[in-house]
Each structure stands twice: as structure tokens, then as C-alpha cells.
Design goal:
Blueprint lengths: L1 E4 L16 H12 L8 E2 L8 E8 L8 H9 L6 E5 L13 E12 L12 E3 L5 H11 L1 E4 L15 E12 L2 E8 L6 H13 L7 H8 L14 E8 L1
Parallel strand pairs: 3-10, 5-6
Antiparallel strand pairs: 1-3, 1-4, 2-3, 5-9, 5-10, 7-8, 8-9
């Protein structure tokens, strides 16, 4: 299934002891459909508290013989309004939503204006300072390619080994007061997109130079990079598979 959700009121995707999560709501709906039998859901990856998704992918195994075109309507009727099934299809039993991914695309939204917008506060990061778009675009060129992104990974990560990832696209578009950062890559580390955006915003405010990205990557040290941008501007946009 491809699902989308507004992460504003959730403690993230993954089930945890304290706070409601996207996974918990999905499994609660499936529990009702399966008459009390627990069905575990696997996603392409986690998203943090207040992070959104337009193209999250999940899979689960079920003994139910429901026509495929009825699954979407059935589960959506049991989910809260801020979680929605976009599409559903049958896949081979060996398919794995997480391990079969070939890449992901994230987008981060910034409102660049003197005044905050009450109605966009849950979906954009508000930045008052004037930003140099061209400098940030120049910096994006240094992000693309295969690099060790240790400097752009939270120390709280549970990944102990290789932090090399390939970024195929790092781009910025702007329209009026909205700036959109797009990152598409083979994979992403914990908080990686938010740290990239936080660093690019420092470049946009002329606190760093575009070419500083080179030294930050080479440092392989989280302290070398900028602040972590807040979660509400981040969207898991699409997950790619062969």
C-alpha cells in the first residue's frame, strides 16, 4: 500500500511506548478487520514526530480474501482523517517494503517571509531572514554524488557502520514566499535531510559559504554541520522500487 499522512499529531511513524503513532493506527485498523488477530505492518522506513508523508509504502501479510479494489475503502473507513490509503496492490510474498527500496525522495518546505502564516505552520518552517537562493543552489551541487554523510547524521542513529549514501538530486525551487528543497537519493540517514536543510539555510543567511559543504562532508563529524531544521517542513515524497 502507498499511504499518506499528516504527522502533526503523531509521535512518528514507528510504534513506541509513549505517544500515538502512524503504525499503531494502521495496526489498530487491521486488528478490527481481522477480528482481533494482530497484523504487523512494515514500512519503507520511519518518519519522526510531526514529519509528513505523501508516498510512504507499507506491506503486510493477510489471510483475508478481500477483492483488491476494496482494500483501500475498507481500511480508510477505520483510519483517522489524517492518515489515508492512496493505493493497494497484491505483491509477491518475498516483497519487502524496507529492504527492496532503491531510493527515496524527500521535500522540505520553508516559508521565507517577515510574518508567519498561521495556516501553514504545521507544514512549513518559517524563516524571517532574507535568504540567498543562488548561494544555496550552488551548495547543493556539492551535496550530489556518493559521500560519507556522517556529518549530516544524528548521533542518535542506530546505524553503526557505513554511512555512505548517493544523492542523485539536491535542488531548490522558490515561488513567492515558499522555498522547496528536494533531495532524492539511494537512502538517507537519521535526520539527514533536516541537517542538510539547516546547513543550507545557514549558507542562505551568509553564515557559511557554499563550498563549506565540501569541508563539512570531509570532516565526518556532526558538529561540523549546521543545526537540524524542525520536523514540520519535511515530507517523505516518494519511495522507489525496481
Amino acid at each position: 500500500m502507498i499511504i499518506q499522512y499528516d504527522g502533526t499529531n503523531y509521535a512518528g511513524y514507528q510504534v513506541q511506548p509513549n505517544g500515538n503513532t502512524i503504525q499503531a493506527e494502521l495496526e489498530k485498523a487491521l486488528l478490527k478487520m481481522h477480528k482481533g488477530t494482530v497484523v504487523k505492518v512494515t514500512a519503507s522506513g520511519r518518519t519522526d514526530a510531526r514529519v509528513h508523508a505523501l508516498g510512504q509504502v507499507i506491506h503486510f501479510d493477510t489471510p483475508l480474501k478481500i477483492p483488491m479494489n476494496n482494500w483501500k475503502r475498507a481500511i480508510n473507513s477505520l483510519l483517522p482523517a489524517d492518515i489515508q490509503i492512496v493505493s493497494a496492490e497484491s505483491v509477491p510474498s518475498e516483497f519487502h517494503a524496507r529492504y527492496d527500496t532503491t531510493g527515496k525522495e524527500y521535500r522540505y518546505f520553508v516559508r521565507n517571509d517577515q510574518h508567519p502564516d498561521l495556516f501553514r505552520r504545521h507544514y512549513t518552517h518559517h524563516v524571517r531572514a532574507a535568504l540567498d537562493i543562488n548561494a544555496m543552489k550552488q551548495a547543493c551541487q556539492y551535496i550530489k554524488g556518493e559521500h560519507d554523510f556522517t556529518s549530516f547524521c544524528s548521533p542518535k542513529t542506530d546505524i553503526k557502520g557505513d554511512k555512505v549514501r548517493t544523492i542523485y538530486e539536491a535542488s531548490i525551487t522558490s515561488d513567492m514566499d515558499e522555498i522547496v528543497f528536494t533531495f532524492r537519493g539511494s537512502g538517507f540517514l537519521y535526520n539527514m535531510v533536516r541537517i542538510l536543510v539547516g546547513t543550507l539555510l545557514e549558507i542562505g543567511r551568509s553564515e557559511r559559504k557554499p563550498e563549506d559543504i565540501i569541508d563539512i562532508i570531509q570532516a565526518e563529524d556532526r558538529k561540523a554541520a549546521g543545526k537540524t531544521a524542525p520536523p514540520q517542513g519535511l515530507f517523505l515524497w516518494k519511495v522507489f522500487y525496481n
